[in-house]
Structure formats: structure tokens, C-alpha cells
Amino acid sequence: MQLQELKQRLKEYMAIPRVSGYEKEMAYRLKEDLGKYTDDVKIDKIGNVIATFEGTQKNAPVLMIFAHMDTIGFVIKRIDKDGFIYVDRVGGVPEKILTGTPVRVGSEDGRYYDGIFGVRAYHIMSNEEKAKADSLNDLFIDIGAKSDEELFELGIQVGCPVAYGKAYYELLNDRVSGSYIDAAAGLCNLIQIGEYLKKQRPKATVRLVGTVWEEFSARGAMIANRTGKCDLAISILGPGAADTPDQRGKVSNVSMNNGVGVTMFNFHGKGTLNGNIIHKGMFELLKKAAEKNEIRIQRQAARGALSDTAYLALENDGIPCMDLGTPDRYSHSTLELIDTKDLLQTGELLCHFIEELDADFDLNRY
Fold first, then answer.
1. Cβ-contact 61, 39 below 8 angstroms
2. Segment 99-119, tens digit of pLDDT
3. Taking burial as the number of CB atoms within 10 A of a residue's CB, which of 181, 190, 264, 267 is the most buried?
4. With pLDDT > 70 as the criterion, what percentage of the chain qualifies?
5. What CATH number did the domain enclosing 324 receive?
6. Which residues have a Cβ under 8 Å from the Cβ of 361 and sit 6 or more positions away?
């Protein structure tokens, strides 16, 4: 896949609203796109998209490579009589960026309407108000409605999703900024891999999966495994790039345009008490594939975050897992940023990993 084609697909995927629990449009688009490379593609009961590419070695382990389709966002909790909308968070939304932010408000029939988080005019703010972020409980969304009845007629009700507004900007040096890049980037890699597997049949059976609920409960991949059993799994989810002035030399060594980001350790200690420690055998095979194809890898060890691998690893009799992906800046903001050359390399490295995987791979930790 060429870089310009990858950028165009990224732009299209970023624009599809898919707040966790409301991934239907993305699921059917991904099913259609993966269906160009295999006839064996389905959507399971909870909405995961699963495309299977049969391997040539029947005793080789089954590999699942997945990226989450869903995004953070909001759910409507109250609508007042004047047509203003109040919401609660779905996933890790940073409240301090919300005032004045464009959004898309979903209806029960799947349509979306543009709106904004209202913001108090600067010249009437007190000095204290100017210096602090408003709580989400105090914020409201305005889509131009005059009454609650007008919203109800559009099908906008309590429980409907709200997503960030659509945004896509091409910056210098093949870098792209916009809304919901982190999830869309991994989905683009799935298409890269599907294109490769159609031309080059793998030794091990590969399932390419778009998961639901990662931002909500991180358990969508568990159900995907119960639909189509796997022996080992890779989550395409890049680490944060720590190369901006506020993070450089403090958080990690990961930077953009310096190789694929691999998470060696993660742990979410805020209530969930779970994470993933990379499977040594998988990492050794990844290093072999990277060295052979002259692709650099960057290691990250992080606290405060996790992915589906935290729970997927507990399935069956234990599933070896690894998280890797494109380093990104400004994660979970309305304008995330990646280097698309990193994105291209992430997909290429995963294809090379598949080339190396065969019946001799040892699933044991040691």
C-alpha cells in the first residue's frame, strides 16, 4: 500500500463516528474493506469484525491481530426544555479541552448533527473562570435547537452518542492531525495486512479483527476470541510519542519517525488493576522480523493505560499477547497527531512478523 492511499483511507476512517457501543457504521465499512481480501469475514454478536486467512500449516498457531474500532466520546444524559444537551463521558475524555469544541450529536436512527460545547464569552468571565477548566457537569452542547421537542423530532434522546467533530489536517513531513487517529490508524494497518495476505498466504492462520468496546471496558477482544479461537494475539495500539517539549526526557524514549512503538509493559492502576507484560517469544520473533527488514522498533514501559490484551491474555488457557503500533501525540484530544511514515512501517512490520510465524513457534512464556 502506498503512502497516499494510506492517508486517504486514514482520512475516511477518522471521519466515521464510532463512539464505544455505537460502532455499527465502522463495522460494516471494515467488513466491506476486508472482504476484498478474503471471503471469510463476519460480524459477531457484539459487533466485532473478524476476517480469517487460512494458513498452509495446520499445526501452526492461530494469530489474531486486532485494532479497536470504537472511540472515546459522550452519551446524552439530559436534555433541557430549551434544547441544550448535557452529556457524560464514554472513555478517557480530557475535560479541560472541551469548551468551544465541535461535536457530532447522534440520533436513534443513526444520523448525526453538528454542534458545539458552549463556552462563556471571554469578556464576561471572572479572572478565576479564565484560569480553570469547566467541569463536564457544567457544560452543555448547542446544536442550534430552540426546544427539546425539536431534538426529540430528530430522534435525539437520552442515551444517544456524541462524538468529537470531524477534523483532518495534513501537516509537514507526511504528518497528519485530526480527530480519532489512534483507532483509525490501527484499522488502516489491518487493511495493509489483508492486502498482503491475499497475495502471500501465511503459514499460520491469521484473523484480522476490528474490536468493539476497547474504550468502554477493554473486553471486546475477549468475545472476538470466543467467536474465533486464537493462540496468540497482537493489539495494534501505538504508545504515546514523548518527543514534545512538555514530555521530552521525562516520560519515555518514544519519538515519531523513529520506528514502530512496542509496549513492553503497561498497567492501569486506577480501579481496573490490570495490564499486559509482553510475551518474550513474540517479542523475539518481532525483533527478528524487524532486523531482517531494517525496521527500527522503540520500547515503552507505561503505567496508567491498558488495552484489550489485559483481558484477552486471560482467555483459554492463557493467550500470549503483544501491543505495538504507531507513536502518536496528543492522545484522546480532538486533534491527535501521527507521522504516516510510521503508520506505513507498522503495517509492514506486522506483515514480516506473519512471515516468520510457523508451527515451530513456542507459545510458552519460558
1. no
2. 999 999 999 999 999 999 998
3. 181
4. 99
5. 3.40.630.10
6. 60, 61, 204, 232, 281, 285
CA distance 81 to 49: 40
Does residue 127 lie within any of the structural domains?
A: yes
Res 131 pLDDT > 80: no
C-alpha cell at 330: 496528543
**Burial readout 218-244 (b: 16 or more C-beta within 10 A, e: otherwise):** bbbbbbbbeebebbbbbbbbbbbbbbe
pLDDT at 130: 65
Phi-psi map region of 78: left, alpha, beta (phi>0 left; psi -120 to 50 alpha)? beta
Residues 189 and 143 in one domain: no
Neighbours of 197 (CB within 10 A): 21
Host domain of residue 138: 73-164
Q: Is the domain of 233 the same as that of 287?
A: yes
**Rg of the chain over CA atoms, in angstroms?**
21
User: Is residue 175 included in any domain, yes or no?
Assistant: no
CB distance 47 to 61 below 8 Å: no
* Inter-CA distances, 356 with 85, 286, 317, Å: 52, 9, 24
CA dist 80 and 87 (Å) reads 12
Provide the CA 250 distance to its chain's centre, in angstroms: 25
CA 276 to chain CA centroid, nearest Å:
17
Please check whether residue 170 lies inside any domain of the structure: no
Task: Check whether residue 77 and residue 65 sit in a common domain.
Answer: no
Q: Which residues are catalytic?
A: 214
Pair (14, 103) in one structural domain: no
Q: Do residue 332 and residue 214 come from a single domain?
A: yes
State the Cα–Cα distance between residues 321 and 283, nearest whole angstrom: 10
Residue that has been written with the C-alpha cell 489485559 in this structure: 310
Same domain, 8 and 128: no
Mean pLDDT taken over the chain:
95
CATH of the domain at 99: 2.40.30.40
Q: Do residue 234 and residue 305 come from a single domain?
A: yes
Contact in structure between 294 and 206 (CB atoms under 8 Å): no
For CA atoms 233, 286, 52, 29, the dihedral sign is positive
pTM: 0.96
CB 205 within 8 A of CB 52: yes
Banded pLDDT at 302 (limits 50, 70, 90): confident
Structural domains in the chain (count): 2
